[in-house]
Amino acid sequence: MNWEGKRRFFNLNNNQKGVLFMVLCSLCTSAGQIFWKAASTKIDFFNPLSFLNFNFLLGGAVYALGMGLMLMAFKKGDLSLLYPIVAMSYVWVSIASPLFFPSDSMNSYKWVGVIVILFSVSLLGFGSSRIDSKNRDNLKIDFKIEEKSENKSETKSEYKSENKEIKEGNKHDEINLNEKEFESKKSSTKVKNG
């Protein structure tokens, strides 16, 4: 990887890095399953030494690499966004297995299934990214409200007008501030400021 590629990778946010690791994980687990399928023709369950064939061991190693990538992904991003990407393994195996095993084939039903999986994973990812941006906006609004309510000389009308400006600045989220909430914020500010 050249310097430009490394810089692009480090500029990704944690969820994006997690998604990248999960896609690589699904590729590794799919490759591991294909190696295991190739190994299955040489395995005799009554002879434990038959498990020591190249395809079986390579499949296990690639599968273990996939597990490591999954753990790295879980460390970086949200589980609700990342785990559905595991379903991509079905896509990779469905597409790759006919290339390696002539008895396997893709028919129109399998292609529809692949498209449904791709659409579903994309939909889950899109939904998670919208929730993440909404949560970031909520954090910004909460911070602005707390910052404004800590001002000791603030009056109720100033507080409401500031709250109205914040509402207008963020059309996706609503802030319901009633009299009791205002009074509780005001009294907590007085207690803090002595």
What would you say this structure looks like, in words?
- With 194 residues, the protein is mainly α.
- It folds into two domains: 104 residues, no CATH class; 61 residues, no CATH class.
- The protein contains eight helices and no strands.
- α2 runs antiparallel to α3 and α6 runs antiparallel to α7.
- About 4% of the residues have low confidence.
Q: Bin the helical content.
A: over 70%
Strand content: under 5%
Main β-sheet: number of strands, strand sense, barrel status?
A: none
Task: Give the N-terminus to C-terminus distance in angstroms.
Answer: 58 Å
Structural class: mainly alpha
State the total count of DSSP E strands: 0
Order of helices and strands: HHHHHHHH
Number of domains as seen in the coordinates: 2
Shape: globular
Briefly say what this structure is.
The chain is mostly helical. Helix content is about 75%, strand content about 0%.
Keywords:
194 residues; mainly alpha; 2 domains; 75% helix
How are the SSEs ordered, and which strands pair?
Elements: H1 3-10, H2 14-40, H3 54-76, H4 79-82, H5 88-100, H6 108-149, H7 156-169, H8 179-193
Helix pairs in contact: 2-3, 2-5, 5-6, 6-7
